[in-house]
Amino acid sequence: MDIWHIVGNGLGKSMVAENEKVIRFNQPLFLAASTTLTITNSKVAGIKKGVLVQGKPPGVRFAERLEANNRELENRLGCKPSLGLLAIKTMLEYDVALKISCMALLPCLERPQNCSDKKALPAAYHNWLGERRLALAWIDSLHWPEFWLSAPEQSDISVTDSFSCLLELPDLPRHEASQLWLTLSKVSFHTWLEQANSKKLKAIEPLFYISGYRHISPNWWMYDNQLSVHVNRLQRTLAFVQQASEQVEKVKV
Hints:
By secondary structure, the protein is α/β, with parallel strands linked by helices. The chain is 38% helix and 10% strand.
């Protein structure tokens, strides 16, 4: 069985063995050393839509499967999937062993303090909590050590029904919502975990990304340099809660 190694553009170490075939993203094939396949998004590739695939794919109809999976994932996530998630789902359809590095599907949402409030971070256009939710269902078929998050710092702060408070954010005045972001981002992960279930975790996903389907996003906090610290902290806490909750459910089964 061929071993394929997906190497993302994030933090981490990519220890690629000589017998592994490598996939990279948004890089010209001739510049990506020891790379078998590159997948490039339409913006970087300069094409109108879809993705550009260069190199030797793992099997037949790879580009067609990418396109079909892209549509499916977009429907399931509410926004375009990252190339990393798209590659994982598609590669799982082939008879290969799959390793992943330099990619945790959780990039930082903290904005530079001099960033324009009219410009969103590229990472803000993806539903990372949703992507990790889907990836958790496939994790047993993957060698992916960097996916697993360590527990956040402990806190003594607790809020009754934290998920309901979080869902109220879009309807609150900005000052009140800003204060709530600050408070919720400091709530103990134990509190979130005690109150969590799969339905609640899925319901709050749309608060953490910008939909490309709307001209003006209601998630104004994704453009706020000061609040981005708290948004990023809470997303990471909830990603850990999502991970821990899934592990608890597996133990029950």
